[in-house]
Amino acid sequence: MPPYGYAGRMLRVNLSEKRFVNEELSSDFLKQYIGGAGFGARILCQENPVNVEWSHPENRIIIANGPLSNTIVRGSGTSCATSKGPMTNLAGSTQANGYMGTFLKSCEYDGIIIQGKSDRWSYLVITRDKVELRDATHLLGKDTQETQELIKKELEKEKGVSVYCIGPAAEKRARFSVIMGDGSHTFSKNGLGAVMASKNLKAIAVFRGDYKTPVWNERLLRDAAKELHEKALTYLNGSRHKYGTNGAFSNLHEAGTLPIKNYTTHLFPEHEKMNGQYVRSHFETVKRIPCYNCGIHHNLLMKVTEGPYAGFVGEEPELEIFTGLGSNLGITDAGSVFILSDIVDRLGIDANETGWVLGWVMECYEKGILKKQDTDGIEMTWGNVESVKKMLYKIANCEGLGALLAEGVKRASEEIGGEAAHMAVCTHKGSTPRGHDHRARWCELLDTTLSNTSTLEATFGGTRPNLIDLPPVQAQFSPWEVPVINAKTNGWHIFEDCLGVCRFNMTYPKTVAEAFNAATNAHLSLPDILKIGKRIVNTLRLFNIRNGLIPAMEIPSTRYGSAPGDGPAKGISVMENWNLMREIYYREMGWDPITGKPTPETLRDLGLEI
Amino acid sequence: MKVRIEVFGFLKDSTNFQDFPSEFLFEGLISLDYLLNEILKLRDIDKVVLVNQKYVPPNYSLREGDVVQIFPPLDGG
Q1: How many whole angstroms separate alpha carbon A542 and alpha carbon A89?
Q2: Exposed, middle or buried by CB within 10 Å (0-12, 13-18, 19+), for A519?
Q3: Where are the domain boundaries for CATH 1.10.599.10 in chain A?
Q4: Which domains does chain B have, with CATH numbers?
Q5: Are A427 and A553 in contact (CB under 8 A)?
Q6: Can you tell me the distance from the alpha carbon of A181 to that of A204, in angstroms, rounded to the nearest whole number?
Q7: What is the pLDDT of residue A416?
Q8: Please, which pLDDT band fits residue A93 given cuts at 50, 70 and 90?
C-alpha cells in the first residue's frame, strides 16, 4: 500500500528514447522532501549533470504535486515545476494552480520527470493506464489558449483533462517564456517555457483518473481543511474573494510599494481607477473561474465596460499584472490592462518580466537612449498601450528590438550599456522581482535577491513570523532585523510549495501543519517543518553553487537597490548596508558569511551530503 | 499632545480597529512602537505603518499633529 498522501511513484519520461517508466519513491525520499518543490529540488540536484546548460536535453523538468493533492483540502490542484532556467542559468522552482496537481495524483503519480529531447514536436498525454507522445507539429505557432482548446478537441475531452503548454514565445526561445495551462495558470519563473521548447515538447495533457489519495485520518483532515477554508475566506477581511488580488492596488500606492514607471516616481493619482474595488464595481462579472476545489473563487471572467476596450471579455488580471503592465508602464486605463494581460498570456511570456523590460524601454525612450529607429518605429512612450501591444509581438517573435528584449531586462540593459545598464530593475542573477516596488519592502527585496528558486523563497506578503511562533517584525528597514527574520522564517514557504495546495488557501501555518499531519501521519511540529524546508532550500543552494552562483550575483541592480526619490520611503537606501545584510543572512542560514556556501555543519544537520 | 490615527483598507472592519479613536491625546513623549504595541495592542497584528506618509523607525518620537497611518498587510499575487 502506498504511503499516506502519496501514490509512491513518479513517471519518468525520456523524450529521446520515447520511453516511459514508473519509478517507485522510497519512504525516506518522501519524508525528507515531502513533494512539489522538495521533489524538484532533490531530483534536479541529484540528476542534472554538472554545468549542463538549460537547453541541454539532460536538463530535467520535474513537475510534482504534493501529499494534499486530490484531497478535500481546498485549492489542492497546485503543482510545482523545477528545472534549470535560462534567466539565471540556475534553478527555477515555480508553482501553478488550476488542476494539474490533482489530476496527476488521480493518475497515481506524485510527479513527472522529463528528460531528453523529442526528435519532433510532440505533446505528452497521461492517463492512469497509458502514457503516449503525440505529434504536435500542427500546433506550432498556436498561442497558449488555442493550444489548450485544440488538444482538448483532439482528445475529445472538454472537462476532466488538464493541459499545460507553451506558446509561440517559447518556440522562439524567449528567455522568460512560461508553461501555461488550465486557462492561464502559469509556471512563470525562470523561463521554463523555453526549457520545455528546447525538448520539442509543446504540451502535457493529464486526464482525470480514479486514484484516491490515501489519507491517514479523514476526520482530522476534514477538520483542518474546514478551518483552513474559513481562515482563507476571512483573510484580509475577505478581500481576495471580494476584490481579487488587485484589491491591494491602492494600499500598495499608499505604502510606497506600487511600481510606477520603472521605479522613477511614486506618484500615481489614477490608482483609484485601477484597483480591484473599482474594477469589480464598474466592470461586469461574467463568471467565476475557480481552481480545483477552491472556495475563495478570486478569479473572474469579466467584461470591460468602459474605455477604448469596452466590450472585451477576458480573465481579470491579477494585481501584479495591473502593476507590471499598468502602473509600471504609466498605463492608467484598467480595460487596457485586461487586453495586455490577454496578449501576454496567449504569447506565453512572464507578465512580471515583461513589465520590467518594457518599463525599462519606456524610460530609455523618454531619455533619448533609445530612439524611434531603435524601437522599430514604435513610439515607446509612457502609457502608450498600442505601442506596448506591438512590442509584445516583437518580443514573442524575437524580431527587431524584440529579439534583444526577449533576453530579459538584465541582458538587454547590459547590451545597450551606459546609463541604460543602471536603469534595469533586476538582480545580478538575472531574476526580477514580482510586481511591487521592493525598495519600501526590504524583506522581499532581500528575499528576491538571495533566493535560490529565482523568485520569492522565504517571504510572501512579508514574513509574518508570529504565525510560526517567532517574534514579530518590529523594524522593516533594519539592516540587522530583516536578514535575521528572513533567515529564521525561510523554510516555511518552500514547505508549503511541497504540499500541492494554493498559497491563498494556506493562510494559517499551524492548521496547514495539522492538515499535512492528518493526511500523512507524519506528526511534524513547526520546527520539524522549518528544518525540512531548510533542507530543500539548501539542496537548491548546492545546485546553484555547483552551477556557478557566487555572492557577486546576489546583489540588486543599481535601480532595484536605489533609494526612492519620492514617496513614503524617500531616501531610504538598502545599498548602504547591503554587504552587512547579506553577511548576516548567510550566517543566519548556516552558510559561510563570505562565500555564501552552506557549511559542513549545516549540511550534516540537514542530512545533506556535499 | 494630540496624534491622529488613520486606519486603511480592510483593517477598518477588523474588530481590533472598530473602536479605535481617531485621535490620541497623551502627555510627555512616546515612541511609535510604544503607541502601537503597548497602547493600541497591535504587536501581533500584521500591518504597515506610516507617520505623515513616511516610514519612520520604530523608536520615532511622536510629535504634536503627527498622523499615524495603519495599513493592512500588503498582499499581491
Answers
A1: 14
A2: buried
A3: 438-605
A4: 2-71 (3.10.20.30)
A5: yes
A6: 9
A7: 98
A8: very high
Chain B residues touching A245 at Cβ < 8 A: 75-77
With a cut of 80, say whether residue A208 has pLDDT above it.
Answer: yes
In chain B, helix, strand, coil percent, each to 5? 20, 25, 50
Count of helix runs (H) and strand runs (E) in chain B: 2, 4
The pTM score is 0.96
Single-letter amino acid code for the residue at B45: I
Q: What are phi and psi of A79, to 5 degrees?
A: -140, 165
Q: Give the minimum alpha-carbon distance from A109 to chain B in angstroms, rounded to a whole number.
A: 28
Q: Which of the listed CATH numbers 3.10.290.10, 3.30.70.270, 3.20.20.140, 3.60.9.10 matches domain A9-207? A: 3.60.9.10
Would you say A110 and A25 are in contact if contact means Cβ atoms under 8 Å apart? Answer: yes
Task: Dump pLDDT digits (tens) for A353-362.
Answer: 999 999 999 9
Q: Which residue of B has its CA nearest to A503?
A: B77
pLDDT tens digits, one per residue of B15-72: 565 666 688 888 888 999 998 888 888 887 778 899 999 999 999 999 999 999 988 7
Per CATH, which fold does A237-422 belong to? 1.10.569
Determine the pLDDT at residue B16: 60
Contact A464 B73 (CB under 8 A): yes
CB A182 within 8 A of CB A158: no
Q: Which of A316, A474, A502 to mutate to test the interface with B (most CBs of B within 10 A)?
A: A474
Query: Could you tell me where in chain A the CATH 3.60.9.10 domains are found?
Result: 9-207
Which positions in chain A have a beta carbon within 8 angstroms of at least one beta carbon in chain B? 236-240, 245, 247-248, 250-252, 254-257, 318-320, 434-436, 440-441, 460-462, 464, 466, 472, 474-477, 504, 568-570, 572
How far apart (Å, rounded) are the C-alpha atoms in residues A569 and B16?
A: 27
Instruction: Please judge whether B77 and A319 are an interchain contact, meaning their C-beta atoms are less than 8 angstroms apart.
Output: yes
Confirm if A500 and A69 have CB atoms less than 8 A apart: yes
> For residue B39, which phi and psi values (nearest 5 degrees)?
-90, -50
Integer Cα distance of A99 and A159 in angstroms: 11
Alpha-carbon span A352 to A211, nearest angstrom: 36
CB A581 within 8 A of CB A574: yes
- Rounded to 5°, the CA angle A437-A438-A443 comes to 160
CATH 1.10.569.10 in chain A: give the residue spans. 237-422
| Domain boundaries A438-605, corresponding CATH code | 1.10.599.10
Tell me which residue has cell 533609494. A563
* C-alpha distances out from residue A242 to A231, A236, A294, A501, Å: 15, 10, 15, 21
Cβ A363 vs Cβ A261: under 8 Å? yes
pLDDT value at residue B15: 53
Q: Which residue has the cell 506550432?
A: A140
The predicted complex's ipTM stands at 0.87
